[in-house]
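User: Can you help me understand a structure? I only have the sequence.
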Amino acid sequence: MSAILIEDGVVHYEVLGRGRPVLLLHGWVGSWRYWIPSMQHAAMRFRAYALDFWGFGDTDHLSERYTVNAQVTLVAQFLDKLGIGRIALVGHGLGALVGMFFARRWPERVERLMAIGLPESYEAISARLQREDLKTLSDWLLTPTPSTEAARMEAPKADPQAIVASLKALRTMDVAGAFANLQVPTLLVYGLKDPLIRLPERLSPEQLPEHVHVIPFEASGHFPMLDEGSKFHRLLFDFLTLAPGESPRKLQLKEEWKRRVR
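Assistant: Let's start by predicting it. Here is the structure, written out as tokens:
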């Protein structure tokens, strides 16, 4: 287990592989640990990092650092501590929000962004997220299989107030504005059966900038990286190996998704 001190708080992270860096950011349910298969695939060519946000996993539970902006600052401080300049970001749920706001604030530091299950607003998130305990949430979102065991085991480690505080902060944040002003190549990934995040209604290619692309996972819920692991990891690797600055639109967009988002 690796850890660093940031403003007198312990931040846990793990790293695999060598090459250009990629940072994986977990969501509201779970921790860095459900990224292990993704890290192993990325590590064939990249140096893959995953950390626990404040209040999650094995990072310190410091309630004053539970807002979305505080987690964004954590990412910046983490990269500074490790001497990482430009990086690819892969975020899921809460991590997708953190990655997006980080890329909006420091576009020069982000080579590309994959945002999985990015909510378009506070209202797009199921009320169950702040109403139910973490064990219930993990049972709801994660079918018991060997691939989901790590996420189900880690979920109860989180401080429930870390979820509540992030959602409270999100109510006052301009998610749509931040997304509209993203300057980095961005790939949006959604599980079409996601019960936690309501799918955006208008995501056809004609409605998005040229540097933004959308790919669906038809058989996935909230965790495409676990529900359709092989498909997700092929996409992740293809996304990471795009040339710097190249739009992810060269990645395939399925006809089923085109029909869904018109």
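Now, to help you interpret it: The radius of gyration is 17 Å. The first helix runs from residue 36 to 42. Let me know which part you'd like to focus on.
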